[in-house]
User: What shape does this take?
Amino acid sequence: MKKLFTLLFILTSLLTFAQTYTISNWYNDKQSATVLTFDDWDPASPGSSVPTMISKSLVGTFFVTINNAWRVTDYPDMTNAASKGIEIANHTISHPSLISAGNYVTEIENCRTTLNANVTQDLPVHTFAYPYGDYNASVITEVKKHHVAARAVSYTENAWGYNYPSTNNQYFTIPTIQVGTMGTIEDFTAELDAAITGGGLYTIMYHSVGGLGWFDDIPQALFEDQLDEVKARENSTWVTTFSNATRYHKEKHCASLTTLSDDATTWTLELTDTLSNNTIFSHPLSIKLSTPPGQLYTNVQQNGLDIAFNASATTLSFNAVPDGGDIVLSKGAFVPTSTLQALEQNILLYPSPASDEIHIKTSDGIDVTSINIMTMQGQTVYSQENFQDDAISISQLPTGVYVVEIITQHTDRILKKIIKQ
Assistant: This one.
């Protein structure tokens, strides 16, 4: 009778558990998004800005004007850049002011089709930058036909909140800061930090790097210093392409996660959005899903393929593509809450607060196999498999409150808070 009661309790807990989830504002739960954009594809791009970006493992977007004398020989360089994750995008054929050009449709469309025919990248060209920042309603209407977003040339300081853009039209007038007008490296980092605090989409516009005399040229040394400042903040900001940032932002705002089925062995979910072009709108979204207390999960798949996940006692985090196929969570053992509470009493984590290291002590018969330390937002900042010692160094962690996930030899998961001072 006791076993039957326990089974009924577990089943009731599963059936009454309400699915709750969040979709992170930015990929991998970063605070903001930072996009390095380059206009024109100047003569120094293949030998200066592109290789510097690649050497620092950074990506960005190059808006190409195709009617330059060196262009035909540079298409292989653009393809190579794209193979490293850099986006090649549309900046018209000859860089006219589109509000006065009678052939603005040709300028926009012929550049797009020419780049698609000559540059190999994962997706066809689908983002745009306005020459001189000039646009009107007719130009925007044309750009919308084959693009998902466009960048303007407006100089906007400290306007990097997450709610911009808030309408579809605003995705086609996204502001930027022109690096050549910013002044010092301190000005550059102040705007970067303001964007991280605001949680928004921050675009930085370059024209020329390396001293070849092209418009708005900045010295190579300053460029590298700026990239180093961006690189140093990668834990806080998602450094990505204009395409990735705007697609993620659009998808996140119209995506939903629903349960298709839930039984003793699997939990099947469906992630959808309301965007019609699934070829373009295919960027994975970062999901944090609440799970029933005590339920363990052994695998996560989408469309039959394994995807990485992080699990705690009550949450599961993973990246999945909207309309990319069913998401199947494979269930492991279910540990009743009473068992977890009893186990927790036999695992001691100390001291807290701590500055240099923490220690784990367990009762006889309990072996700790792995440790994960996470921020209060769920980001894993430390992991150790095959845990043997009782001491963990936390001296490298910033001051704050963390959650320590302790996993035993029976795959029990225990969570404990610590304060790093």
User: Anything to note?
Assistant: Residues 2-16 form the longest helix (15 residues).
